[in-house]
Amino acid sequence: MAKYKLEVITGSMKHAGTMDHISITLYGTEGQSGRTELNNFGIDFKTGTTRIYTIKSKQSLGKLLLLKVEKDRFLFFPEDEWYCSKIVVTTPEGDVILFPCYQWISRGELMELRGGRGVKVFEEEYPLLIDHREKELQLKKSLYQWEIVDKKLPHSSHFEQISEIPAEIRFSMSKTEEMIYSRRIIGIELMFKGLIGSTEKWEDFEDMKKIFLSKKTAMSEYVAEHWKEDDFFGFQFLNSTNPNVIKRCSELPPNFPVTEEMVQPFLEEGSSLKNEMEKGNIFIRDQKVMDGIPSRICNGESLPFTAGLCLFYMNPENKLMPIAIQLQQQPSEQNPIFLPSDSETDWLLAKLFLKSTDLMEYEAVHHLLNTHFLGEVFTVATLRCFPLIHPLYKLLIPHFRYVIHVNKLAHRDLLGPKGALTKSSLGRDGLIELMRRSLSEMTYSSLCLPENITARGLESVPNFYYRDDGLKLWRIINSFVKDMVEHYYPSDSDVCKDTELQEWISEIFTHGVLGNKLSGFPESLNTTEELINFLTMVIFTVSAQHAAVNNGQFDYHSWTPNGSLLLHKAPPTTKGQSSLKTIFETLPNVGDTASFAGVAWLLSDTYSDVVFLGEYPEERFDEPASKQIIQKFQAELSSLSEEITKRNSLLEIPYTYLDPTQIENSISI
């Protein structure tokens, strides 16, 4: 008689347990066990428990191949899904085999689990497993389908309602409840203060500071005090939520006729614009990608919107200072170049309009398109193309937790009829057009941080903490991926003959960048080096890059004067005509300001079921080598976190968004 010891682990999330009957059948190379109900004294499958069972067989089953789980009704109890985390089997020969599950199992459902090391398609030996693999992928392709909502944007999952999303990739119940609670707290505070729906205009900046008394951060308070300062304005283009747009300027665009006389007073004494360009101290922010996009119609009129240019100077104190702003692309008498020497309110208005446009592009392109929407493409392709036993599925799936769910919320709460982005100056239609333009110009290299930084000429810019921390994270993730890939793909030929991998990259090319060969995105992968770089980009995008652009939203954007999605008054066309009253007339009204601040709060929140970069609560890898690679990854992340914490302790404005202890493993908010 052969005895198999089973450790059955039930998940720890709310309502993971079940009262139903659970039965197991083992399949091996030498036969199968009988169907055995798991039944100990007491309640067997309580939330967060591990229970031990024994399955007996007349003889050894040989090498274990599959484990079949079945769930049947207990008495007249209503349906209660069971979340099975994993089952660990100890064979009569002493082998210990991990069977990862991490899925909800419904009544009457049959779940077949594979255990052991990650296996690629060309490594399959047994007809039973080949058949199982093919059927699993057929099921996954029917469950996860592509939806083309807009022919010029990345394709998405086909689920129309959140309730249609499989439970494994939906928010946990605790996260859902916490988000509902946060919304209520925000709504109650705004309603109590009479801010919701108010059409009154602001008259005092001090009143704006009272929008939220229950939610403040050290950084949000700093922003409210320093938003007018030029050095802080420049600092934000390096270390705020949108560090992706500024680049070194060696020659002025012909449509930005800044003269030496205009900017000489703001340069080092005795220097010139030409000299500073040659020294690499001049930088530019050009919003030309947004030029010509129609703005939203409000009360029968187009809302004001600009697509401007800003010139920056890195001064001898290593502060990035704005020295010239032109609010429209084409120079004219009605489109003056604003300077720091202009009146305080003229210069403030110029910065306000530039930041408003920057904020819209940041949210639509660098946040939603480049992380959320591409992240969904990576997620759907992975769910469709890799079986659970594939090593790349095991590697990638922790980084796609909640992506599909959170994107459905983004379409509803940000781009829906009452969404924050729909209320912006460009409105939904304008932002969709902006995303279309940006996707058509997107390149693979722009998503690879080392190449991105080099292309923008920012390798040696001082006090650029996003770059410093980001490049270190890129190297750590790259080293982690390299170790994993070289373990599972010893040669380039292994990459080439993995047909599931080739289908995966093909789907990303087709559904992500829409088959645009000019993007430089690979259509196939032929070497381990190509695979390592692409996987590094994917993991970096959905973890570190998303954290960099997402986590500072409340810090920097809850204070509306520092950048508003919506402006009401037309931009200045002549100098010397503005006043503080003009600023308040330009800013959104009380109700819209409060609404935007509330969204910034929600988008920057952290919830109790958060999983940070490098944490793997779901044990999917069974091999000691893979576990050691993960431990090395975690140690390097911990070391970087200590380094960042030490540096930040010396800074007036700490940069925390790429501290590994602040980076979620996936796009989950």
Automatic annotation (TrEMBL):
Cofactor: Fe cation
Any one biological process term the GO annotation gives: lipid oxidation
Site keyed Essential for stabilizing binding to COTL1: positions: 104
Main localization category: cytoplasm
Pathway: Lipid metabolism
Residues given in the record as Ca(2+) 2 binding sites: 40
Coiled-coil zones: none
Keywords: Calcium, Cytoplasm, Dioxygenase, Iron, Lipid metabolism, Metal-binding, Oxidoreductase
Binding residues annotated for Fe cation, in chain numbering: 367, 372, 546, 669
Family according to the record: Belongs to the lipoxygenase family.
Name under which the protein is recorded: Hydroperoxide isomerase ALOXE3-like
